[in-house]
Structures are given as C-alpha cells and as structure tokens.
C-alpha cells in the first residue's frame, strides 16, 4: 500500500500552507500542511474535494478525517508516517481508501515531505493528496489489488478449512476444538475465541478465550445485559469493535476486566440457524485495528457456517441423550441376585460415526428368576441401530421374561417370542440365546435362535466354545413356517462361568466370525477370575477395538461352595394308562430314597410321591414327569416334583366319613416339611421337601 521513499515534488522551505498553484489545481491535486506540534492538519480547497468534505464539516484536527477515512485505513497510514519519521526519511507515499459521502469507496494517494528542525526533530509534514481511482489500471495498483485479493483468498481458504473440519463435529466441544485448532481461528489472526449458547433467554459461556481470562459473573448472562454477545443476539447483527477506545466506550462494564489481555479489536458475531439465534461468538485480536469490508464479509460467512455446525452438534447431542435414555429404559434397571451364582452384565453402545441415533441399538440382556431355584439368562440383538430397534428390543425382552416366568420350557419360550415378533408387523428380526440354569445341579438347557454360541470358562481358567444346535432368528416364523428350536444341555460345574454375548464383542473388520470367536475365547481365558473384572476387561477391549456395533454381555459363574448344591437327581416320565411306567416310577422312588439315606422317612416319601403321581394321572388325563433331587448344605433335603400339563391347581378337600378321595393333599401337608405348586408353561408342578439325616462320613 505504501510507496515510502517515492519521488515527491520539490517543495521549498517557505512552501505556504495553502499555495495558489494553478498547475496543482488543474491536475486536481490537493495540498496539506500538518503542524505536528499543534496537531493541526490544514488543507486547501482541492484537498477538501478529494476527501469529499465541506470546510464547515472539518475542524482542522486529523482525527476528524475519520468520518471519511475508515479506521483500518487510518491506522495503516499512521503506521507509514510513523515508520518514515522513525527511519529519518524525508518523504513517504501511500495509497489508501476513503468512504465518500454517498458511502462508496474511493482510492486516494498521498505524498508527504517531513520537515525537521536543526536537531532533526520532525516539526511539519507538507504534501499532496489526489484521487487515485484511475491509477488502479496501472501495474502498481494492479499489484496492490492482487495483494488484497490474495489476502482475501487466504482468508476464504481458512474459512473453507474450518468448514470442512466442522462437518465432522458431533458435539459442541468438537466445534470449539475445531475452531481453536492451529488450522482454524488462529489462521485468521485472532488471538482468542469466546462463545456462548442461548438457553431460555440467557447466554451460557462454553468457550472463554485464553486460559485465565474468565470474567467473574459472565458464565451465564441475560441477553439484556450490556455485553457484546447479548447485543448481537438481540440485534441479530454483527458488532465490529475497531479499537480499545471503542471497546471501553461501548462496554464499560466488561472492558476493565479484559484490559490485561491487550485487546486492540474484536468481532462479535450472532450465531443464527434457521432464522433463529442459537448463540454468539467473539474473535479477539491483539495486533490490529479495524476491519475492511472484505474481512467483515468473510467473518460473517464464517459465523453462518459455525452456527450450522453448532446446530447439528446440539441436535446430535440431544438425540444421543434421548437414545441413551431410551436404551437404559429398555434394559433391566437392576439385575437380581442369584443364590449360588455370581453375575455380571455390561452394555456398550456403538462408537462409529454415522447418522443421528447410531448410539442406540437393539442389543439386550436379561436375567430372570424362575421357580425351583432356577434362573433364565437371555442375550439378544434386534436388527438395526435406531430407536425403532430399541423399541422392538424392549417389547421382546418383556415377552421373553413373561413366557419364561410362566414356566414354559426353553423351546416354547423361544417359539412364542418368535411368533410375537412376527405379529408385531415390523420389518425387524432378532437373534437370541436363552439359557435356563439349575444352579443346584449345574444343568443348563440352551436354546439358540440365529445367535452366536455361548462360551464356558472352566474353574482352571481354560475357555471353550459350546456348539449349540440352533433355529431361525426370531420373527421369521411366518416366512419360513418353522418354530423348531432344539434344546441343548450342558453341565456347569462349580467354579465354571457361562458367557453370553452379542456379535459386537466378536466381529472385527476384515475377520470372519470363527476368528473372532477364537480371539474372544483367548481373551476370556487370559482375563481376571472375578466375573465383574472380566466383564470390565472385555468391554475395555471392545472400546479399544472400536467398531460400529453395540455390545451386550452377560456372565454367570456357578459358585464352588453352594449351600444348595445337589448331590443327586433322578427323573422319570409316566404316561397315562401305562401301568408299567407307573411301576418303574415307584421302583425308582423306592430305590432312590434308600440309596440316598432317607432312613425312617423312606416310607413317608414313597407314600407322598405315589399320591402326587396318582393325582396327576387321574385328574389331568395326561402324562406326568417325576423328578427327585437331594439338596445338600447345612441340612440335607429330598425334593419331589410331579409335573403335568394341566393349569388347574389342586385343592385340599374334606373327604367325609365314607369318602374315598380328598385325603391326598391332607397327607402331603401332614407328612412333608414344605410343599407348594409352581406354574410350568401350560401346566404346573406340585413339589414337596423332606428333611433327611446327614450321611455318615465316607459313605
């Protein structure tokens, strides 16, 4: 802009302040005489025309020219003159722009001659000013314009880089980090950034500039308070503060708190999205004064881009909060304690970038207390990663729990759940694995619907995959007309751990399912012994690996010293109208109670068991399943269960003096230590228990 040292007209020492020089006037050259001591800037008539001023509009002070000379241009001219004086130069020259009366810009050129006294001290500056608009066609003006265009392109490029970075922001903090990055706001020359979000008529500060710059009382401010961010939110217009004096005069409450930051100018921008303010941003500068029209346009465009990114980030955070809340509402609030087992459950949402709502899915776990000390463990995954998948998951979890609690066999539980999902008229299917464990015996019945196999970790730390024959995923029964879910049985010894998980813990990009299962098996074998620590470790590994799928995990460890561990179990099916089956059942009961050391209670046990079997066969006209168990612990107990297919509950009746029936439940009540009835699917099980003496040591 400046051409300091350029040749200037030879001016004699007695050059008057306002010479009447026809050649200068003919060439539309105005003159000035600047008295540095008095601070007065005298101009001739032609100079008034160059500045588009009337004599009565000017008081002789150079500061008054600010009405025509923008602050940024005036600051640059002052710098040129100051440098010439400091260097000992005799003259200087510079191009600058003025803003005419009608608001249009005009290129102007000035040349000045510095007069000094005998000591070398500058006393006066005399020179000329002229309209330089036409000179923009020559090489020097074109170079000047090219330099300005290049500066504008650089600023535009910075805005583009920031916009690209903001496109990946998924939170308000991501937006702030992108702006503070070395490729962001610092490239625009700003020393620091402040930002606030509009919330219920208040502005909450989310970025406060350089460390230690926080102004007390400004964390949350009302829009009406006299702060620049409040002003731009109220007016929906940017506010450019072009000097420290401007800042101090416009915001006297704020300025005393930030004088230590040596702020020289600032640009405050309203953040507007969809025609509504969502906040405000301030860029603070410590090395410049004023803003050109091009710089203002660039900053306003930047503010619009930031507002759009902030709105997306805020919407994403709201969706994420909603998704996480919905996910937690759909999963069990608490996991019941299980007698004889240690349980750990974990859930991890997907971490991959994607559309809104990707942080919620259809993975779930559940633990269901069942009659007879049994427990049902469920792991499942509804297709999809959205609120619909979570809603379907919640409904499916509830019906699975209901079917299992009713006492249905595992295969029936799975089949009914598949029919339910199909009848929901949704386009989703689900994979699921249901394991029903009797912790007293360690017997686990497993049903699999398109899900991955379970793992079992031994008491010695070894881990193995348990192949389970499976059926179709849930919800596909109508399409394939298949409701067959084979039941597999495994034994869980004391100290062993059953692991159920969704495929998010197994599948890895670039590997097949078999490799993932082998890797998981190795991780489980090398993990901590405690199930909670092991669950934490597996989730940590999933976090480190990342991935675009949710993870649900359930660990169930059978304790080694269980107060209700079983030391014997027998079962016999008795068909209706089959005397041989009834005879074999009675023989089994007689042999078992004597082998298990029932002592003088053997006859009572045989009598009660026979009565329960007879009642089931007579009153249900169906078959019965007889189960005998010996439970050990502080006291040995023998448990008899007779299961039938009728949901009608037995009633204790008075037989009367001549009655031949009605005494069955009376005998059960008198001879047993405890008895009851449990629902089992479409039927029931009548059970009773007898205290037994401890067996002699070594028997």
Q: Tell me the number of helical segments per DSSP (H or I, 4 or more residues long).
A: 17
Mean pLDDT, to the nearest integer, reads 80
Helix percent reads 25-40%
N- to C-terminal distance: 109 Å
Rg, Cα atoms, Å? 44 Å
Q: Which strand order spans the largest sheet, edge to edge or round the barrel?
A: 8-7-6-11-10-9
- Overall geometry comes to rod-shaped
Report the strand count: 27
- What proportion strand? 25-35%
Report what the structure shows.
By secondary structure, the protein is α+β, with helices and mostly antiparallel strands. It is 33% helix and 27% strand. The protein has a six-stranded antiparallel β-sheet with strand order 8-7-6-11-10-9, with helices on both faces. Strands 13, 14, 15, 16, 19 and 20 form a six-stranded mixed β-sheet that branches. It has a five-stranded antiparallel β-sheet with strand order 2-1-5-4-3. Helix 4 runs parallel beside helix 9.
Features:
699 residues; alpha+beta; 6-stranded antiparallel β-sheet; 6-stranded mixed β-sheet; 17 helices; 33% helix; 27% strand; rod-shaped
Short account of what is shown:
This protein has 699 residues and is α+β, with helices and mostly antiparallel strands. It has 17 helices and 27 strands.
């Amino acid at each position: 802009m400046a051409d300091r040292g350029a040749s200037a007209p030879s001016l004699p020492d007695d050059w008057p302040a306002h010479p009447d020089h026809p050649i200068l006037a003919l060439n539309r050259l105005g003159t000035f005489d600047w008295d540095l001591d008095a601070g007065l800037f005298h101009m001739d008539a032609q100079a008034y025309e160059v500045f588009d001023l009337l004599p009565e509009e000017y008081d002789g002070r150079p500061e008054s020219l600010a009405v025509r000379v923008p602050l940024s241009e005036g600051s640059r001219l002052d710098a040129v003159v100051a440098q010439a004086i400091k260097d000992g130069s005799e003259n200087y020259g510079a191009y600058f722009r003025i803003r005419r009366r009608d608001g249009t810009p005009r290129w102007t050129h000035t040349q000045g001659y510095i007069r000094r006294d005998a000591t070398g001290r500058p006393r006066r500056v005399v020179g000329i000013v002229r309209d330089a608009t036409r000179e923009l066609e020559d090489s020097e003006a074109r170079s000047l314009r090219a330099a300005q265009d290049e500066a504008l392109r650089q600023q535009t490029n910075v805005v583009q880089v920031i916009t690209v970075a903001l496109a990946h922001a998924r939170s308000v903090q991501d937006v702030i980090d992108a702006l503070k990055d070395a490729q962001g706001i610092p490239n625009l020359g700003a020393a620091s950034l402040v930002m606030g979000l509009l919330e219920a008529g208040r502005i909450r500060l989310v970025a406060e500039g350089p460390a230690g710059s926080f102004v007390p009382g400004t964390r949350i401010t009302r829009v009406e308070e006299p702060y620049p961010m409040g002003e731009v939110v109220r007016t929906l217009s940017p506010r450019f503060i072009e000097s420290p004096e401007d800042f101090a005069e416009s915001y006297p409450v704020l300025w005393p708190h930030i004088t230590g930051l040596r702020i020289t100018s600032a640009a405050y921008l309203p953040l507007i999205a969809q025609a509504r303010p969502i906040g405000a941003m301030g860029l603070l500068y410590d090395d410049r004064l004023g803003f050109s029209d091009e710089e203002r346009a660039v900053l306003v465009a930047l503010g619009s881009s930031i507002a759009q990114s902030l709105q997306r980030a805020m919407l994403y955070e709201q969706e994420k909060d909603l998704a996480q809340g919905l996910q937690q509402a759909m999963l069990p609030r608490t996991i019941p304690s299980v007698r004889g087992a240690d349980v750990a459950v974990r859930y991890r949402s997907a971490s991959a970038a994607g559309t809104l709502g990707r942080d919620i899915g259809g993975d779930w776990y559940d633990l269901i207390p069942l009659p007879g000390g049994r427990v049902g463990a469920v792991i499942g995954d509804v297709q999809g990663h959205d609120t619909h998948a979570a809603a379907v998951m919640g409904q499916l979890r509830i019906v699975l729990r209901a079917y299992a609690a009713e006492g249905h066999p595992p295969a029936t539980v799975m089949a009914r759940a598949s029919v339910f999902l199909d009848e929901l008229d949704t386009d989703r299917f689900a994979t699921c694995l249901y394991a029903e464990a009797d912790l007293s015996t360690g017997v686990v019945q497993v049903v699999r619907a398109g899900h991955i196999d379970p793992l079992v970790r031994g008491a010695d730390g070894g881990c193995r995959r348990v192949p389970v024959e499976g059926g179709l995923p849930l919800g596909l029964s109508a399409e394939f007309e298949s409701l067959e879910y084979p039941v597999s049985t495994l034994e869980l010894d004391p100290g062993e751990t059953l692991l159920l998980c969704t495929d998010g813990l197994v599948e890895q990009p670039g590997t097949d399912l078999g490799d993932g299962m082998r890797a998981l098996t190795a991780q489980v074998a090398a993990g901590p012994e405690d199930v909670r620590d092991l669950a934490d470790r597996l989730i940590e590994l999933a976090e480190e690996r990342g991935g675009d799928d949710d993870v649900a995990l359930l660990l169930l460890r059978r304790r080694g010293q269980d107060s209700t561990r079983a030391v014997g179990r027998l079962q016999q099916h008795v068909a209706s109208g089959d005397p041989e089956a009834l005879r074999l059942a009675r023989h089994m009961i007689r042999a078992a109670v004597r082998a298990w050391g029932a002592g003088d209670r053997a006859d009572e046990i045989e009598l009660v068991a026979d009565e329960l079997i007879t009642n089931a066969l007579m009153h249900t006209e169906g078959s019965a399943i007889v189960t005998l168990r010996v439970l050990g612990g502080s006291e040995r107990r023998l448990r008899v269960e007779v299961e039938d297919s009728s949901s009608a509950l037995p009633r204790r009746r008075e037989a009367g003096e001549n009655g031949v029936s009605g005494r069955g439940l009376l005998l059960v009540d008198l001879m047993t230590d405890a008895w009851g009835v449990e629902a089992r699917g479409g039927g029931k099980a009548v059970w009773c228990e007898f205290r037994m003496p401890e067996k002699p040591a070594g028997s």
